[in-house]
Design a protein that fits this description.
This protein is mostly helical. The protein folds into two domains: 48 residues; 102 residues, no CATH class. 76% of the residues lie in helices and 0% in strands. The longest helix has 49 residues. It is rod-shaped.
């Protein structure tokens, strides 16, 4: 007498769970016809459904955590990029440190597409000082919120680089 499901039976059950055509009675009858006892068939289906539900839940939690981490690291990249020009740090060493820190943050925030994340993140600290100096050139005063304008403008090339590399280098990679 069978007490476990074959991989094919598990796949069939999971497929029926996702397609909305799952019927517990039909699944039990199918397993009984394949040689399972009714109580064993019911227990196996319930156990497989619980495993499937737990896997889906864990995937959703992992995706949510990755999205939160990504948002925090993108903000960190923007802050790192804006620190030098806002506080008038003009040292090439600072630019190197900002590029390295942004690259590391880009790698960890875009783990599924690390090359695109690193290159896009490195672009931000390079472009921001140029945009910042151009935007505020010849001005003696400004509203503090205006600093967001150069941040947004300098994020555009970074986004362009990220999406270009994502669509070319990672064209055939499935996003998990």
């Amino acid at each position: 007498m069978n007490r476990t499901l074959s991989p094919q039976q598990k796949d069939d059950l999971r497929l029926s769970f996702t397609q909305g055509k799952f019927s517990a009675e039909a699944a039990i009858i199918k397993l009984v016809n394949e040689g399972y006892e009714p109580d064993v068939a019911k227990a196996l289906i319930v156990a497989e459904f619980k495993k499937y539900k737990k896997e889906v839940f864990n995937r959703v939690i992992k995706r949510s955590n990755n999205e939160e981490t990504q948002k925090v690291l993108v903000i960190a990249i923007m802050l790192i990029s804006s620190f030098g020009p806002v506080f008038e740090v003009t040292s090439p060493l600072w630019l190197s440190v900002a590029m390295a820190a942004s690259g590391i943050a880009g790698y960890f925030s875009f783990k599924t597409k690390p090359i695109a994340g690193v290159l896009a993140s490195i672009i931000m600290p390079v472009v921001f000082p140029i945009v910042y100096n151009f935007y505020f050139a010849g001005r003696t005063s400004y509203i503090k919120i205006e600093v967001l304008i150069p941040i947004i403008i300098s994020a555009l090339p970074a986004l362009l680089i990220y999406y270009t590399i994502s669509k070319t280098v990672y064209a055939n990679v499935e996003n998990n």
